Amino acid sequence: MEITTIIDILGTVSFAISGALTAMRKKLDVFGILIIALVTSVGGGTLRDILIGKTPVSWMLNMTFVYVIFGATLVAIIFRSYLKYVRRSLFLFDTIGIALYTIAGVQIATAAGLHPVVCVVLGTISACFGGVLRDILCNEIPIIFHKEIYATVCILGGSVYLASSTAGLPQSIAMLVAGCIIIIVRTLAVVKEWSLPSVYKKDYFK
Amino acid sequence: MEITTIIDILGTVSFAISGALTAMRKKLDVFGILIIALVTSVGGGTLRDILIGKTPVSWMLNMTFVYVIFGATLVAIIFRSYLKYVRRSLFLFDTIGIALYTIAGVQIATAAGLHPVVCVVLGTISACFGGVLRDILCNEIPIIFHKEIYATVCILGGSVYLASSTAGLPQSIAMLVAGCIIIIVRTLAVVKEWSLPSVYKKDYFK
Amino acid sequence: MEITTIIDILGTVSFAISGALTAMRKKLDVFGILIIALVTSVGGGTLRDILIGKTPVSWMLNMTFVYVIFGATLVAIIFRSYLKYVRRSLFLFDTIGIALYTIAGVQIATAAGLHPVVCVVLGTISACFGGVLRDILCNEIPIIFHKEIYATVCILGGSVYLASSTAGLPQSIAMLVAGCIIIIVRTLAVVKEWSLPSVYKKDYFK
Hints:
By secondary structure, chain A is mostly helical. Helix content of chain A is 75%, strand content 0%. The first copy, chain A, has helices at residues 3-25, 30-52, 58-61, 63-78, 80-83, 87-111, 116-137, 150-166, 171-191.
């Protein structure tokens, strides 16, 4: 099994569980929970694949992903009452998922021969768009547009990965460095309640 | 004309009419009605085609679909006052559309050489995603995520079709059996108000 | 630089600025503003490319677009307090963007060998879908479904372009005529508050 595949599976589990939990907070039925879990975990990668024309999209060609998502969703439904006692672990799950997806996205975009800036954009899309779709399906303004520096962290991590990878660092080191940066910065951002500088100080748009 | 094409056209008419009626309940203008009718009827098949890389997507290559949707929408607008007296027929229309789209979706996915589980997922997407898009465009949480067993019926019917088709039954018989199952189960589900077992009995997520 | 590219860039600037302004009215953070600007300007062309299978989608292959959008968004953020004094210019920007995108969309669809009706539909999608995505992301029913004759103007302009182009008029003349029709009709429509004829006169759907 290639390292990219393992990364993808780990990220898939993280996102499927966090998606299922969100769907249960919205009181969706079993089918709805499964769909939100599926969309949250494969949504970003699916959009990335569609945008670069890599079809059929990845998760359709590798049943592992489908089974992993079904399994993770089932676990999330059965153990939902315990999961609320492990909120911190779930936050960690989610953050690791973001790091893994960003790097995998950048790798796939690079392999498609696209411009570095586009690669970072595609890495960010891979990591964030599942959550955007989840919010749209649950009828909310996507959280990453007005809270948290979630996406900014992906842009940072994706750029670091691409730079260190281009600079000649071994793949594994580049991935480790970028992954750690994403995980640390996001954790700090949530703990310290960082947000992007506001552009509304003088309230021109009241 | 192939049997798959006829199936597709019948499903298109059913969905276009039900989409136009929804748009009129939302008081959209003529253009809005037409778009919602179009999206409801071709949305599922379009997503299926995009996911498996079958582009340009089907409806663009066969003007029949475009004309059929324009015609059905016009009929729905002109005869809207009569359509409310035929609610049962419209429900039947919609249910037949679901059955037809599920089977057509499974067939196209099978022809693309995908895994049986993915074929059933794509059949369900073909049948349900038009309605999901309609609900998103009308700013609502998609109904299939919290009410009705709509999608579950598609999964059931798609699986039956695939199993009987693989088991060696003639295409026409397999389609008839699967189609009848979808139509009967959905009708029973709505009449008897069946829903998926709740996962919220103990209200962990209050 | 080809004429189609120049057209595309001008339209991109117009839409990015109008997208950024909308995002600022919604009080999104800097990242949210950038994404809404990006989606508003490349959303329509991206859907067109995906539907006809022209991948990687256009803006990923031409960094000019990405830089232009970043630049235009920056300008919109910095000069936002002045932009409200130039509302009329912004309306003009938006209208020119619509005209340019419609024509570019029809051209690309024609080059893909699609049916004229589909070409006009794709031209309209190119011009309108960015705004639809913007409204969905901001959790509103897309404005073009219930107000303004925005899309109708695109259908009109696209048809005129296709007809005059097919009739043998030189490209530049056909584009000029169609572009002017879109700009004039839309301006008149907004000034005179034109809307599509209502289908709800007798209120069948109360």
